Amino acid sequence: MIIVMENGASDAQIEGVVKKIKEFGLDANVSRGTERTVIGAIGDERKLDQEMIDALPGVENSMHIVKPYKIVAREWHKENTVIDIKGVPLGGKQIQIIGGPCSVETQAQMEQSAKFVKAAGCRLMRGGAFKPRTSPYAFQGKGVEGLDIFRKAADQQGLPIVTELMDVRMLDTFLEYNVDVIQIGTRNMQNFDLLKEVGKISTPVILKRGMSATISEWLMAAEYIAAGGNHNIIFCERGIRTYETYYRNVLDVTAIPVLKKETHLPVIVDPSHAGGKAWMVPALSRAAIAAGADGLLVEMHPKPCEAWCDADQALNPEELKQLMGELGGIAQVIGRSI
Ligand code: PEP
Ligand code: MN
C-alpha cells in the first residue's frame, strides 16, 4: 500500500502512520520528498483497511497496490482453471451449454426436458427446485421433491445437474441428492454466510453476478467461497440493472474479457435472464461465445407457453438445437469447440 501524506504533515503524524502499519505486522518505508512524504507499507497489505489508514491524522490518501482478491486472481494463477463436473470439463477449449427449464415442474416435464437437452448436444442440465421469486404469492418451486424429480430425470440421460441453493439449511439435502453444480443466484451473490458454507464443500459453484454488483464485488464474493477451500467456482454474467426498460437486464458483454483477465476461473453467461425474451437469446448467446465465454446457461422448456416460470424467455427444444449448431460455427472460428 502507498500512503501519501498531506503537504506539511508533521513528523509525529508520519510516525503515527508507521506505527499503525507495524501494528499489523508490516514494514514501512518512508520516502521524504521536497513537498510531500510518501509511506510504503511492505508485506501483506490486504490486512490494511484503506478507510482506517485514510482516517489517520496527516494522511491525504492511500492506495492498495495488490488486488484485494488472491485465490481467484489470475495474477497468482496464470493458467485457466478447468473444472471437472462429473467428467465434463468447464473452462477449457470445449464450451459447455447448460440447458433446461427455469423450474422443475413435474416428472414428465423434466424427463422430456432432459431428453431434449441431451438431443441438442448439451452435456449439463439446469432446473430450479427452489425459486427466488419477486412475489411471495408466485410459484416458489417444488422444493426437495423437485430435487428428486430432477435427479431422476437427469440420471436417465446421464446429465449432471445444476440447481440453485437459496438457503444454507438446504445444503445437506443438496449433498444427499448429489447436486453436481450448486448455483448461487443473483440475489444471493453477497449472502456471505451462504458463500462461506459452499466454500467448505468441494461441489462446483456457479456464482451469478448480483444485478447491481461491480466486477470487484463479484470477485470478492468468489474469494469468500475460495477462502473456505472450495476453488471450483464458475462466474455467471446474467445481466445487470440499468435505466433501460425494454429488456429485463443489460447483458454486460464487457464483463467477459475483463473477468477472463482478472481470474483464472471459468466464466459463463446466462442470456435468458439477461434479455428476458426467447427471441433475444440466440443473439446474446452468439455475442457471449464470440466474446470468450466458457459456457452458457440457457432456459429451454418442452412447451414454453406452459412454463410455470419465465415462460417468455424459454427456448423451445427445436430452437435450442438450432442454437447449438450456430454456436458450433462461432466456436470453430475462435479455435474452440462445443
Ligand atoms: C435462475 O437461473 O433460475 C435465476 C433465478 O437466475 P438469476 O439468479 O440470475 O435471476
Ligand atoms: Mn428463470
Polypeptide structure, described:
- The structure is a single chain.
- By secondary structure, the chain is an alpha/beta fold.
- The protein has two domains: 2-63, Phospho-2-dehydro-3-deoxyheptonate aldolase, domain 1 (Alpha-Beta Plaits, 2-Layer Sandwich); 83-333, TIM Barrel.
- 33% of the residues lie in helices and 18% in strands.
- It contains eleven helices and 14 strands.
- The protein has helices spanning 11-23, 50-54, 107-120, 144-157, 171-176, 192-198, 215-227, 255-262, 271-275, 281-290, 317-333, and strands spanning 2-5, 27-32, 37-42, 59-63, 83-85, 88-90, 96-100, 124-126, 161-164, 181-184, 205-208, 233-237, 267-269, 295-299.
- The strands form three sheets. The chain has an eight-stranded parallel barrel with strand order 7-8-9-10-11-12-13-14, surrounded by five helices. A four-stranded antiparallel beta sheet has the order 2-3-1-4. A two-stranded antiparallel ribbon has the order 5-6.
- Helix 3 (107-120) packs parallel to helix 11.
- The longest helix is centred in the C-terminal third of the chain and has 17 residues, at 317-333.
- Bound molecules: phosphoenolpyruvate (PEP) and manganese (II) ion (MN).
- Phosphoenolpyruvate (PEP) is lined by residues 102, 128, 132, 164, 185-186, 208, 238, 270, 273.
